[in-house]
Amino acid sequence: MHLFPHSLRASLLRLSISPSQIIQRPGHIQARYKGVSVLRRRKTPHVLIDLDEDPYPYLRSIMDPARQQPRHAQKRGSPRNSPEVRTSKTMSWILRHGAQKEGVKMRPDGFVLVNDLLANGRMHGQTFFDIEQVVKNDPKGRYSLIEESGVWYIRANQGHSIKTVNMELEPITFAKQVPMAVHGTNLKAWESIQTQGLSRMNRNHIHLAQGVPGDAVISGMRNSSQILIYIDLSAALAAGLKFFLSANGVVLCEGPIGPQFFARVENKDRVPLKGWEGAAGPGREARAVLSEGMDAGPAPVTEGRDKARPKAASAAESTQSRDAGGDVLADRLEHVQLK
Fold first, then answer.
1. Is pLDDT of 79 > 60?
2. Which domains can be identified in the chain, with CATH numbers?
3. CA–CA separation, 85 vs 89, rounded Å?
């Protein structure tokens, strides 16, 4: 085993070059290292280092820039994605989840300075024009780009896991504000969702779309969703759940949304799952009974019956009739099997 000067060993270790990759020659050392001198286009990258000099500065200067790039500066997405898609994925991750980790200062409303975003290592080589094109071409309207006093800001419209973000969302106070609220998921997740309901997981909200894949608007759902869960907004709102609309039309709810609020569940071919064809879900039998009891109301009074009934007794009979109806309804509910 060769002995090397301490300064040389320290420099090599800083570059992750082990002594086994070093060959000593009279007056020089030949270091074979995959990341060194690749720009020389040699099959076996190598460099000759003078024993009397500290090789670290020289080695750093000729190393492949891709090897020098810190791990945290790599873009998101697959190398197979287009540059614009990778830029969008990187922006989305920083603006929704990674701003604090990456040292990008974020306002309470989710906006960050465009210059701060561009200064981040993951956005290396990107320009304002690149960001503007991503925002303009995004099919789901994920971003908002604004100018305030000559300074540009950008934010993700929804999907945050950063707890300090407090978006100004439009409250949904009645079901008819949106055509529908549907959540897309996969088969594996559905196994637990059908009994435990929907939760926001590590995000700030559960995401619901106002349409399904194939409709004009599908923000809030992945196109690859295998299961479509339609939410009974009226029942959920009546139960006290709060729903909101994001700037790009995604329906948001802090949740949890229990299975009793699943109005219908379909597969990706829009075929309803067995047991979830209509007002489906655990407790649907009880809801049907209650609905029947409440919607039926008092029996219609015909002209003949009204004339034949003594007016003095009508109030007492009405009370007796309601009590009897309540007993029947309670008896039917008692025999409902909750799953």
1. yes
2. 6-68 (no CATH), 73-156 (1.10.10.970), 170-267 (3.20.170.30)
3. 6
